[in-house]
Amino acid sequence: MNINDILEYFRLEITREKKLARIMDFRFGYLPAGSLVEYQHGDNHYYYCYAYVNGKRRGLLLDSLNDEHREIIMELMEKKTIVHGLPILKKNIKAMERCLRELKPYHPTMFKYGDLLSSDYYLEGDVCVKEWKKKAECQNPYHRRDLVHDTKRGVKVRSKSEVLISDTLYDNGLLYKNEAALTIGGRTVYPDFEILHPKTHELIWWEHLGRADDGSYMQGSLEKLEEYGDAGINLGKNLIITSETKDAPLTRGEVLGKMKKYGLI
User: In whole angstroms, what is the distance from residue 168 CA to residue 52 CA?
Assistant: First the structure.
């Protein structure tokens, strides 16, 4: 997990914990006064509700076989969780907000000439832009006769929809490769696009399913996506999927929508 992942995790966790803290605060106001104490004698459990009456601490025995008392017992159990858990949530939220203010992302490309530096200046696991650019494109060697459509980038692709995706990436100044070789599970595959994310500097892969109305084609595509998942390449994280049928071709709006969703633009 790099610093960008940590920052994103804190943002999501703050949202989750604030939501839960609000629920706890709301519920606390509807719970009965006093605190629950449980005693065990042999196999028997005894529950007491302790509260202050006229300055003195008083205990009321609750009968767990009585419906009304059992409801009070459950509410006091809930209250105990809130009393101990809510301060932890609030403390965590403050700590994470402080971290968000003080932690800063680091990547050489944030600085002038950083994209010209070697991997020595990169954190372990980060993509070195200089070395990534030098890596050969190595388009899929199979069915090369299908590479008949020209793109603005000067690389031929297999379909008009791939032209649309390629040209939209190009128009938005993104660094990407067509059908760059990727080793997964001991074999080489060729995703339609490999993109260097402009903000996180991580790699994003894009697969376009051009025959979504073809059962056998989709079966093969699903098997390929399962392989991606096994290799840590997952939809919603670092894998973009678009699809089309004969009656519903891919549109530029869909392409831009995917790019915005993944923070590419």
Answer: 70
- CA 37 to mean position of chain CA atoms: 42
Query: Nearest-5° angle of CA 94, CA 98, CA 101?
Result: 145
For residue 186, give Cα distances in angstroms to 154, 227, 231.
31, 11, 11
C-alpha closest to that of 51 among 32, 27, 64, 68 = 32
Token pair of 76 as six digits: 């006091």
In this structure, what token pair is assigned to residue 137? 């494109």
Task: Kindly calculate the radius of gyration of the chain based on its CA atoms and give it in whole angstroms.
Answer: 29
Round to whole Å and give the CA distance between 8 and 96: 11
Residue 37's DSSP bridge partners are 48
Q: Which letter does DSSP use for residue 157 in this model?
A: B
What does the DSSP 8-state code read for residue 127?
P
The residues, ordered by sequence, that sit 6+ positions from 150 with a Cβ below 8 Å of its Cβ are 156, 163
How far apart, in whole angstroms, are the C-alpha atoms of residue 227 and residue 148? Answer: 28
CA distance 158 to 124: 35
Task: Return per-residue pLDDT of the chain as tens, 265 residues.
Answer: 677 778 889 999 999 999 999 999 999 999 999 999 998 888 888 999 999 888 888 999 999 889 999 999 999 999 999 999 999 999 999 999 999 999 988 889 888 999 899 999 988 878 899 989 887 666 777 777 888 899 999 999 999 999 999 999 999 999 999 988 888 888 888 999 999 998 888 899 999 999 999 999 899 889 888 999 988 999 989 999 999 999 999 999 999 999 999 999 9
In this structure, how many other beta carbons lie within 10 angstroms of the beta carbon of residue 225?
17
What's the pTM? Answer: 0.66
Cβ atoms within 10 Å of 110's Cβ, excluding its own: 11
